[in-house]
Amino acid sequence: MTASIPTDGKQTLIIDGTRFSVEPGLSVAAALTSLGRTDFSTDAAGANRGLFCGMGVCNDCLVTIDGKTSQRSCMTPVADGMRIDRQQSRPDITAGTLEDLRPVPERLATLAVDVLIVGAGPGGLAAAVAAADAGASVTILDERHTLGGQFYKQPNTPTARKALEKDRQAADGRDLIARARSLGVRILSDVTVWGAARDENSATVISCLGPEGAFYCRPRVLVIGTGAYERPQPVPGWTLPGVMTAGAAQTLLRSYGTLPGRRILVAGNGPLNIQVATEIIKAGGEIVALAERARAPWSRPAEAVGLLRHDPALAIKGMRELGRLQRAGVEIAWQSQITSLRGDGHVERAILTGPGGEVVVEADTVLLGGDFTSSSELSRLLGCAHAVEPDGRFRAVCDDTGMSSLPDVYIVGEAVRFGGAHVALAEGRLAGLAAAAQLGLEATPDRAAARKLGRAKTFQAALWRLFEPSTPKSVPPDDALACRCESVSMGTLQEAARHGPPDIATLKRLTRAGMGRCQGRYCASTLTALTGQPVSATVGVLAPQIPLRPVPLASLAIEKPEWGGHKRALLPDRPPIPHPEPLPVKKASVVVIGGGIAGLSTALFLAEAGEDVVVLERGFPGGLASGGNAGSLHAQLLSFDHGTRAEGGGGPAARSLPLQRDSITLWQALERRLGVDFEMKITGGLMVAETEAQMRFLEDKTRLERENGIDCHVVGKSDLQALEPALSPAMIGASYCPQEGKINPLVATRHVEDAAIAAGAHVFDRTEVVSIDREAGGFAVTTSRGVIRAGRIVNAAGAFASRIGAMLGLNVPVFGAPLQMVVTEAAAPAISHLVAHADRHLTLKQAANGNFLIGGGWTAGLDPFHSHPRPMFSSLEGNLWVAQHVVPGLRKLHVIRSWAAMNINIDGAPILGQHPGMPGFFNAVTSNGYTLGPLVGQLTAALVRDRDPGRDLSAFSISRFQGGQP
User: Fold this and answer.
1) Please, which residues have CB within 8 angstroms of residue 569's CB and are 6 or more apart in sequence?
2) Are strands 213-224 and 349-354 parallel, antiparallel or unpaired?
3) Which end of the chain, N or C, is more open, meaning fewer C-beta atoms within 10 Å of its C-beta?
């Protein structure tokens, strides 16, 4: 409901086909809320979703606007005549009713700036004023269309402006914004920062999306003031419409003059909840109860007096707000928390647990407040150092001026750690002055600001001593959804964690938790709790990935030249992941080095044959290439494995074709024999062509493939359109291979590992091989967990196979090739085949859950700070251009995730068999690893046991390389 809406100047909205009049200046979310509409969309499980975070983080409030899907209603202002439709969980990109999200650009602009500030809250604005006042040229980026951040929310509607005309908080923000403008600060609002990187010269590059399209910023100095967000504890029903954060409700009220509901329950921890409840009452709303996890302040007299001493004005303000709530008859339940939310399609009641037991509270709106966590994704993505706090949260490591471990990057306010607006103001000023000084400008240090910062930090410490929860958070039950985006329950996570290694990445891969639009912002802490405390800020945590926010695919699609070969690289050495126990086994018949699909398959077949086999994995099984590939099952050659661009003239890849065919068949047989679901589907594969020259290339390629036993032939345009109507009409034909398909490597690898263990294999994670020595009767393998001896060794270390060989003085010509993949939001089924291109780097498929997985061999970079490959902006642009060129409907979707993995580069064929110069040392390495994984394991097991593998493998011996023998 909205109070005192003017009767003139209304704007017309068409919501699900019905016309409504609303006050101008509202966000779409505020407009829907004012009309009593709380459910905006449907999730993948068919449940209703509505407004939750109110600040563009959770992506629960998505709607379709003017035919454009997945628009964040909380971040989008209304416009007269706007058409708003309910968001479907899987929009149909083949439907004529949906529009492209953005036009495909010809190029992306780059802005060179002196001081770039991300975030226009108190810290960012204070930094901008300080730097600009010292003479710096300053640019601010902010995601909202109005400035001020969460603390200085500015009124956007006539109703809100009237309500806040005497509000000190809003006025202070207005004055600070005006000061920044008067100093010439360039303000770019409605700009989403979706990525960041350090270029080859270690300069910072910030990737952005604004109203006019995507662009890059290259600042000389960067100030990060991205603030914090509320991350409530999961409880059953917290995804119901009508449940939102206290911050979201405050935005509705202060920015738009809109009450969040009629009967409102506020629950959580901290003084913000008291302020929000007071403001709702002042606006005419009804607060049915306030539940606070801390004890009543008067029951902590020492802490209360301490707070009063440090800042009497703020302490007295808080006491007045509590008094107002009591006078309004609001029941305040101290030491209480919500344990369950219930309702039929909308929240209707809450279960509170406190000293007196359980209480049922009837409410149509529930505000979950507190549990703030820093928005540290940008600083972590850049590689700024962070410490892990005892509660598992990150704290940016900065000096007194806000300078991070990167000297040209400053972090201020709640982006460092949650600390309130006054801390942010002081830190922002100090950082702005330091940034100006770094540019060579005269910027006198502000000792008064330093003193204010000290006082503000002392006050915050006293405040949270007073509001320290007296009861631990309730443990979410099995039916609580831990991952809001992917609807993954606590029970699913706990079951996976019980049967898996203590690895957050493995838990993510097995359950899909953290793979949705919010990038794990709401479930990462739960995953961390289930897998143990992080080892560091880079080990045992979910790494930030680009895009940091969903981005329209079309906005990044820039045509790039096709590259002429893999970029060979290896990650730098890093300390082994610690394991608390030594190896429990000291001797084995066979030691397999590498716990990817090739190593685990080898172990499976060896164990089934009765061999005593041990697998040593430096990280966690399936954690590198086997967990980072897109799951394509290739039977035909990729375009760059045939013709003039192919390595070794294409001969090695062609000789591997029968292996690929037979390995796909083995995958099917394994799935049946083990009685598990690999999420495997033989869909057939298409390699499309758009010119006659490309068609001739496909004719030549398919002839070679048929000669090697692959069922592959060329189809014309009409047949192609019949097979895949969603392809671009510019495609005039394709090679069609019915034997190709897709598999989910995230679950298939785990099933193979389980089968190997069930057959008697031992798999040891966090076991780094340090050295290998030849000795009588075999080898001594020294690991980070002790020494193990074996009669035979299988080198299945993938991209690191050359390092393993070098430990014995052997040259194993295997190279790492970091490659990247991209994922879109889910859509209705539109593409059923595996799709590639005859002359461009592309592999594309649609997963069972509706996501499109886009790859094709585009080069990724290396991230030395996080010790893993990372997507590159230029490769993302080129890969997405090819994808939308082939499937135009992709322009209607957002990219929600990308990742990179260390692929294996040899000469187009695997290296299999015993090394001729080192009896007992076997290689099992392949560059088409996932497709070939089970067959490589089966063949290697036969060779290790000195059995006939059933085929001539001489073409895959290491002897084919000059220098392959010592």
Assistant:
1) 815, 816, 817, 818, 862
2) unpaired
3) C
Of the candidates 370, 371, 366, the one whose C-alpha atom is nearest the C-alpha of residue 266 is 366
Q: How many CA atoms lie within 13 A of 721 on its CB side?
A: 8
Max CA distance (Å), the chain? 94
- Residue pair 682/737 in contact (Cβ under 8 Å)? The answer is no
Question: pTM, whole model, 2 decimals?
Answer: 0.94
Closest CA to 414 of 405, 406, 402: 402
Query: From residue 742, how far is each of 648, 662, 677, 933 by CA, in Å?
Result: 27, 15, 13, 14
Cβ-contact 843, 834 below 8 angstroms: yes
User: 30 and 51 in contact (C-beta within 8 Å)?
Assistant: no
Q: Which residues contact 745 (CB under 8 A, 6 or more apart)?
A: 597, 622, 626, 627, 629, 631, 930
Task: Reply yes or no on whether the pLDDT at 1 is more than 60.
Answer: no
Structural tokens at position 704: 């070679």
Helix 929-944 / helix 657-674 crossing angle, nearest 10 deg: 80
Q: Is 80 exceeded by the pLDDT of residue 537?
A: no
CA distance 337 to 360: 12
Q: Taking Cα atoms as reference points, which of 547, 551, 549, 546 lies closest to residue 105? A: 551
Question: How is 153-184 classified by DSSP, letter by letter?
Answer: PPP-SHHHHHHTTT-HHHHHHHHHHHHHHHTT
Residue 137 contacts residue 243 (beta carbons within 8 Å)? no
Band of the pLDDT at 597, cuts 50, 70, 90? very high
In terms of DSSP bridges, do strands 861-863 and 868-870 run parallel, antiparallel, or are they unpaired?
A: antiparallel
Which residues have C-beta within 8 Å of that of residue 833, sequence separation ≥ 6? 683, 684, 685, 686, 723, 724, 740, 845
Exposed, middle or buried: residue 952 (CB in 10 Å: 0-12, 13-18, 19+)?
exposed
List CB contacts of 355: < 8 A, sequence separation 6 or more: 335, 336
**Which SS3 state, helix, strand or coil, does residue 963 take?**
coil
Condensed to tens digits (0 to 9), the pLDDT of residues 143-186 reads 999 999 999 999 999 999 999 999 999 999 999 999 999 999 99
3-state secondary structure of 488: strand
Backbone angles phi, psi at 345, to 5 degrees: 80, -5
Facing residues of 587 across strands?
A: 789
Q: How far is CA 340 from CA 182, 243, 477, 522, in A?
A: 50, 12, 9, 18
- Encode burial over 116-138: b for 16+ CB neighbours within 10 A, e otherwise: bbbbbbbbbbbbbbbbbbbebeb
Q: What is the CA radius of gyration of the chain?
A: 30
pLDDT digits 0-9 by tens, 448-486: 999 999 999 999 999 999 999 988 888 899 999 999 999
> Residue 796: which of 945, 902, 912 has the closest Cα?
912
Which residue reads 């966000």 in tokens?
27
What lies within 8 Å, CB to CB, of 314 at 6+ separation is: 459
360 C-beta neighbours (distance < 10 Å), count: 10
